[in-house]
Specification:
Largest sheet: 5 strands, antiparallel
Order of helices and strands: EHEEHEEHEHEEE
Mean pLDDT: 90
Structural class: alpha+beta
Strand order of the largest sheet: 2-6-5-4-7
Number of helices: 4
Number of domains: 1
Number of strands: 9
Low-confidence stretches: none
Strand content: 35-45%
Helix content: 10-25%
CATH class: Alpha Beta
CATH architecture: Alpha-Beta Complex
């Protein structure tokens, strides 16, 4: 991609505790291996607060300054239940949060700061706080695995995968590599209210 400037693909996200990650990764054993089913690797498990997309490297200081104005306390979160996003090309298995309303308010505040400080409009559509666990390419051959994911979702309804305290969130850069996607922290935003 050459747009006349160097850019990177960015998103804002909350890092998960190791215990929550381990609990979520145990779900992998409950679903048989199917062609087209790809699980998110441990280091890429996170809660996305806001997808930013391609952003000029030269504009990072403005972005960081705008997001840094957000005032927030530590987030006490519980990962709870599973859901499915069924899209035309794929089905996504995800874990949800008991504190969806709190996370939606935080997302709204982030959207306002990004719009006023960076002229970045809010994302379209409703925000569903979630952790992407697996992606399944939708084909005729994937029907058995779609059924397995639906069974898993029903079985885990209301199940807690753990609680954790998030003392902040991070700005991540997402890069495609031959081995898959790699997420790297560019900047941390710690809590700023006790």
């Amino acid at each position: 991609m050459n747009r006349g400037y160097e850019s990177c693909r960015l998103f804002l996200a909350v890092k998960l505790s190791m215990q929550v990650k381990e609990n979520l990764l145990q779900l992998k054993a409950a679903v048989p291996e199917y062609a087209g089913l790809k699980w998110t690797c441990e280091q890429n498990l996170h809660l996305t607060l806001r997808f930013i997309g391609d952003w000029p490297v030269a504009g990072l200081p403005v972005l960081i300054s705008s997001v840094g104005k957000l005032r927030f306390k530590p987030l006490e979160l519980e990962v709870k239940g599973l859901g499915l996003f069924k899209r035309a090309q794929q089905t996504i298995l995800w874990a949800g949060f008991a504190e969806a309303a709190l996370l939606q308010r935080l997302k709204t505040e982030l959207d306002q700061l990004l719009e006023s400080g960076c002229a970045l409009p809010g994302e379209k559509g409703a925000y569903t706080p979630h952790i992407t666990l697996a992606r399944l390419k939708r084909t005729g051959a994937s029907l058995p695995s779609q059924v397995e994911l639906e069974k898993l979702r029903v079985q885990a309804q209301g199940q807690s995968f753990g609680k954790f305290s998030a003392a902040g969130f991070s700005l991540f850069k997402s890069e495609l590599h031959p081995q898959g996607v790699r997420h790297t922290v560019i900047h941390d935003f710690p809590q700023n209210i006790d």
